[in-house]
Amino acid sequence: MTRPDAVLFDCDGVIVDSEGPSFALFLEELALHGLPLTLEEFETSFLGGTVEMVAERARAAGAALPQDWVRHFYGRMYAMLAAGVPLVAGVTDMLDRLDAAGVPYAMGSNGSMAKMQITLGQHALTERFKAVLSGQEIGHPKPAPDVYLMAAAACGARPEGCVVIEDSANGAKAALAAGMRCLGYAGHGADTPTARALTALGVPLFHRMADLPGLIGIGAQ
Question: What is the β-pairing status of strands 162-166 and 105-109?
């Protein structure tokens, strides 16, 4: 891959290692309201959307979620994340290498701005990105391409000159719809529902953040 004009990142599962505890919370909540799911079932049917999207799909599948469930869930999730959540292994060194190479980067997530302020803020990462954008808060969450088009603009980069780092099919669809190259981060291996969904879209996978600079033409560490 040739060196990109900018690198655009998803947040959860790509920069912040928040998906494990967040998934566990979703599974607990949905089971409490009549929709028991396995982790694989949840990843296959719900990953990559907003909490509002999860609520809509869960109700359609039979969950008896109360009217204020989204607000309730956000409260629980924010408290859990504020107690501490790690970064994906190798993220800080990878961002240092992008900085040293003069490659700008921005974030486009379906998560709320409040959530990203909690998770990125506790690691003092927010200010490192040219922009931190929420697809749900601009009104067009992934798989719509809007959040990545805005992130590219914040970097002063043409969409076709950007590479997006994603871990969900919805996010990859947003990147491809924006006319951008996409790489799939599969930190838990290639044999997961999300990794298989990325592969089905033709998105190449990688498994260590330390490998990313070399994959995008910056050179191996």
Answer: unpaired
The Cα–Cα gap between 44 and 47 comes to 7
pLDDT tens digit sequence for 103-158:
999 999 999 999 999 999 999 999 999 999 999 899 999 999 999 999 999 999 99
For the full predicted model, state whether its pTM sits above 0.85: yes
CA distance 170 to 197: 9
Query: What one-letter code names the amino acid at 41?
Result: E
**Is residue 40 exposed (0-12), middle (13-18) or buried (19+ Cβ within 10 Å)?**
exposed
Would you say 197 and 217 are in contact if contact means Cβ atoms under 8 Å apart? no
Interior/surface letters 62-75, b for 16+ CB within 10 angstroms, e for the rest: ebebeeebbeebee
- CA-CA distance, 36 to 217, in Å (whole number)? 44
Residues 185/206, Cβ–Cβ less than 8 Å: yes
CA distances from 76 to 18, 66, 82 (A): 14, 15, 10
